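User: For a benchmark we're assembling, each entry needs the component sequences followed by a predicted structure for the full assembly. Here are entry 17's components. Please fill in the structure.
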Amino acid sequence: MRPAAPTRSHSLRRYLLAGIVLPIALFVAIDAAAGYRRSLDAINIAYDRSLLASARYIGELLQTDGDTLKVDLPYAALEIFDAANNGRMYYRINGLKGEFLSGYQDLPDYTRRPPQRSEYAALVDFYDAEFHGDRVRMAALYQPVAGETLRGVALIQVAETLEVREQLARGLLVETLLRGALLVAVVAGVAWLVVTRALRPVNDLRREVTHRGERDLSPVTTPGLPAELQPVVGAINDLMQRVLRMVGHQRQFVRDASHQLRTPLAVLKAQAQNGLSGHADAHATLAQMHETVDRAIRLANQMLALAKVEQVHGQDAPVAVDLCEIAREVALDLSPLIAEKGLDFELHADSPVIVHGHEWMLRELTRNLLHNALRETPAHGTLSISVEEDGSHATLRVRDSGPGLSESQREHLFEPFRTGHPTSGSGLGLAICRDVCDRHGGSIELVNRHEQGRVSGLDAVVRLPLAAA
Amino acid sequence: MQAHSSLMKLLLVEDDLAMAQALQLALERRGFEVTHCADGGDALQRLRHHPPDAALLDLTLPGIDGLQVLHRARAENIAVPILVLTARGAVGDRVLGLNAGADDYLAKPFDLDELEARVRALLRRRGGREEAPPLSCGPLTLERDSGAFYLDGKPLEVTPREQALLKALIAKPGHAVAKEKLFRLVFPMEQDIQFEAVEVVAYRLRKKLSGSGVALITLRGLGYLLRTEPQG
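Assistant: Structure for entry 17:
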């Protein structure tokens, strides 16, 4: 199985495997440890009993002989215990006065407090000790002795090395661990299989998306996708749709643009042919051609501007821009056109109105709006520009005294090349304006102004968020 | 255009032949002596051995491109003023060109009058031999040396403030000049004057000019401009 993606920050498979296998392994380990403790306890009890049996057996052998206590321990007796296991046994018998009587004298004397009671029907105490460098389990039994003249309690200590018990317990532990390991291995294997199967649709989906051609923007249709992946596919298909729409727009734009560029060229050619043939006055022809060329230049410039507005994406950072300054500069720039038409012009832009944005875009926006207004306003009409603060927004308002907009014009107003002015406008101005407004988080609105029931002009109103003070 | 005893020499570096011919014709008509070359290598040779008074440089050239020519010329301390012409027109190109040592920048397509104005400005800035032509707007002319105004050849009586205002406006006939700028020119050093004082000066001037074929136009809130008017 190849890795699912070139950059794989975190593997779902590893995550799932770890999530399933690790807790189980941990549980098995804890269970084994507890089991080991339990079996060790059980072994201790069993062996303690046999240790007690040994002590008692020895106790039975105690005999009183007048004033003395005697023990006659057949070695064979101890061999029974010895033979049963690999461990060794030691014993020591103390007389009634605590004196050493028999056995291993160097076996440490019982110094703990005599047991008051025990779970066995005898006064016996079990404890761990050390003898000859070995760890031993010790049983200390107080054996009552009653003779004719002698009466008292003898102490019988029996010790057994721990090897046997430990061997036994270790064997049990190994067995438990082996079983646990097997369980974990089985679980891991099953989990791996299941996870792999469950992740197969993800790989299928990846394969379908990566192997498709760059022009293929059709919806993703990997069959047999689980419900969990449907939203992902939905999102991918949604993105595809948006890209498709954008590509469509751009194709449309290129088609329209080349058509629009051919028009002035065709006009130019016709005008030039007229001039050359001598049917038209040469100077008049040249004047017409000059106008046609100006139109083509405007169109090309606006197409560039539109492309630039669309291109700028985090390239040059927005800065604080004074809209009043922009309005003033654009008005100065276009002042010859204003004067030529003899317009009654007014600019309201006195105190700075600061927005956050791209200066050249805002200039382009203002220039386009003023251009439109200049075109629409009849000679000697009124035209005004105002820039104001309005709450949290800056408002740029260009008011012309032209014919306003009809309903049919409104429909495709902001779409490229849908101008109402086939000879004078490129049809890109408002598309640029809207793009610029979008880029600045603002809005643009074109409103007919009415006076005495008739349209007295058009207000182009741009609202942009003010820069934070 | 007045004739010069020795014409200003321009080097035109442009690979599009039609463009070059049109520009050469136009510039020669406007009183320049134009040499044309079509590639960057030739241009560098010319700049080195026959330095013109100014050069017009297209950026897209075969062989060594315009920016390279600019870089090398400046690296060799060739101080000829260079005006860059380009169809690329993006702000980035403009900055690139000016950083590379261009003195000015003009995006294609451009107006021939604009080109001439830029070239003359370049030559003036370099302290060249260029003489500024007298300024005029319709019947109104300004004699640069004396600062005197003539209307249809007859001296026009103006106060110093009116003169300052008119001087600013006649430098750019048909173009508005911002009222803030006019205020600074008409009332230099004075602080207690109201902004509206310019209006008073303009009002008096407008009356003096009325019916003369040149009019002083007010663009309210923006500024003033001079413009010729059909008489009558």
